[in-house]
Q: What sequence folds into this?
């Protein structure tokens, strides 16, 4: 079935006339559908290798978006049930879902600190809005998603199995991640001690998962809700720092261009804390910078693991893509380590404002 044919399985307002790939997500296949009326929609083929319980996944998205839109109209994605009333449509070997297109921009890299402040506000507000959402209702779509110790073990396993015969080439990178293995469990340890607690979080707060108004740069909507589950605020803070406060794209091959931009870091902290700072306790606040380091560490290990496994998880555009991504994360980790006390101080200052 063509993409336009699949789009017609949903109650769109007129005949679909064109379809084209949209955005740069690494997980799902995303298309922009334009209809004869001029209306635009987003059709997504859900990655079923990663999301094995699509009913549970779509139920999460339905209840979370309904909750957010009831709290503040049009603040979240609006998805269309299929013509048969289900949350998604099956066509060929695929499962598809449909959203209304949000007229805004999503950034692959941030140009100015102001953009980061906006993204911080969007993710901070997202957290505040879900503060009273009953986490029990949510399916865990990817078990142990931000269990950094599990991610470390996954990397060790991938290295010893060496499925794609690439280990020799990445011994230096592997050593870099293993040298930091004692830190993998620090956040989880604080959780086990009861100093941190799980809240309903986004868990994939990459910069391009928030849509902004192109002219005013105000936040429009947090997207990519596949991993909304119980999690830690420090991880939501950290994953957007990883992508947004870097001076370069996640896959910049020239490492001389990659470092952590402290002004962007401060701006994100300012936006994030202005929306959810008051609801975070002292331990949560003092582990935001740790979250930035650990999310970068975890993601870097995931890229390296995927490279060793032969690129089975993240979408790649060329054979070394995951390795290049893994190296940018190493550069960011080193830069974060070099500025740790400064970054902690900066978060504390922004929390005081
Ligand atoms: P993935 O899980 O693969 O990252 P996303 O849901 O993040 O998929 O979508 C990929 C990209 O498509 C986003 O980064 C964004 O640029 C664009 N996009 C997704 N949904 C919408 C929407 N409703 N309106 C406008 N753009 C969207
Ligand atoms: C994926 O779906 P996307 O592209 O927004 C991944 C994140 C990674 C990110 C790295 C469900 O995010 O966890 O941090 O790639 N999402 C999932 O770029 O695994
Ligand atoms: Mg995405």
A:
């Amino acid at each position: 079935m063509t993409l336009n044919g699949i789009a017609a399985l949903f109650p769109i307002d007129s005949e679909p006339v064109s379809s084209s790939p949209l955005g740069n997500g690494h997980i799902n296949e995303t298309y922009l559908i334009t209809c004869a009326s001029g209306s635009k929609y987003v059709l997504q083929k859900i990655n079923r290798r990663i999301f094995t319980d699509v009913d549970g996944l779509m139920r999460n998205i339905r209840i979370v978006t309904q909750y957010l839109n009831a709290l503040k109209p049009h603040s979240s994605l609006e998805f269309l049930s299929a013509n048969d009333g289900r949350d998604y449509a099956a066509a060929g070997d695929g499962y598809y879902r449909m959203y209304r297109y949000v007229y805004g921009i999503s950034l692959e890299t941030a140009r100015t600190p102001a953009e980061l402040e906006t993204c911080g506000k969007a993710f901070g507000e997202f957290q505040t809005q879900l503060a009273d959402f009953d986490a029990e209702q949510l399916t865990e779509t990817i078990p142990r998603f931000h269990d950094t110790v599990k991610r470390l073990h996954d990397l060790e396993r991938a290295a010893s199995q060496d499925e794609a015969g690439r280990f020799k080439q990445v011994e230096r990178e592997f050593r870099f991640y293993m040298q930091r293995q004692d830190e993998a469990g620090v956040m989880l340890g604080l959780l086990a001690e009861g100093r941190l607690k799980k809240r309903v979080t986004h868990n994939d707060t990459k910069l391009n998962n928030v849509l902004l108004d192109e002219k005013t740069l105000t936040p429009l909507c947090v997207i990519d809700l596949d991993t909304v589950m119980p999690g830690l605020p420090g991880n939501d803070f950290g994953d957007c720092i990883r992508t947004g406060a870097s001076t370069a794209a996640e896959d910049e091959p020239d490492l001389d261009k990659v470092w952590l931009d402290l002004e962007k870091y401060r701006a994100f902290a300012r936006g994030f804390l202005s929306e959810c700072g008051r609801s975070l306790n002292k331990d949560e606040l003092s582990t935001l910078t740790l979250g930035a380091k650990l999310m970068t560490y975890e993601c870097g290990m995931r890229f390296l693991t995927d490279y060793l496994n032969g690129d089975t998880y993240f979408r790649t555009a060329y054979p070394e893509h995951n390795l290049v991504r893994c190296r940018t994360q190493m550069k960011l980790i080193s830069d974060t380590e070099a500025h740790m006390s400064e970054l902690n101080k900066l978060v504390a200052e922004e929390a005081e404002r």
User: Anything to note?
Assistant: Strands lie at 16-21, 29-35, 40-45, 79-80, 89-91, 94-100, 199-201, 210-212, 219-222, 229-231. The domain at 3-100 is CATH 3.30.200.20 (Phosphorylase Kinase; domain 1). Residues 288-309 form the longest helix (22 residues). Residues 25-27, 204, 206, 209, 224, 226-227, 239, 250, 299, 314 surround GN1 (ligand 2) (CB under 6 Å).
